[in-house]
Amino acid sequence: MKFFLLLVFLFIKVSPLLSADYIDKGFYIIDLKNKVEWLKCTAGQQWSDKEEKCIGDAVKLDQNEIKEANRLLNEQIDGDWRLPNRKELESLVCRECDGVKINTKLFPQTPAQPFWTSKRNWWSPKFFWSVNFFTGHSYGRFVPEKKLFVRFLRDR
Fold first, then answer.
1. What Cα–Cα distance (Å) separates residue 35 from each residue in 10, 23, 126, 151?
2. How many domains does the chain fold into?
């Protein structure tokens, strides 16, 4: 019995972002816990069913460019896509993952770099929060003119 419990614990510990919380729907991922749907690829990339990966180059955007990219996305793909808040984006961090701190089976070709959130830093409102998928940490130190990577989501 102890051996069985140890195996269960190890499975839970080593299984980053258990698939029970996520449903893969091709170009997007349903996040059951947060009740949102994430684009599988970083802004600038496109999901390829044929190649089963994100193709193209991820692009860094500033806050003004994000507004335009978001407008274009909502015209091209049904739904009210938006920038995630800090809590939503932090929920994708996988501390146990090697390399990039996100489940790359769900979110392939994610750069191990900071990504924008929609939240301003309450201590210094001229700065926005970001989540860094290299370290897994959040930082509230980027001005809107800074270019960072972006992952969009929509509410379910």
1. 27, 11, 30, 16
2. 1
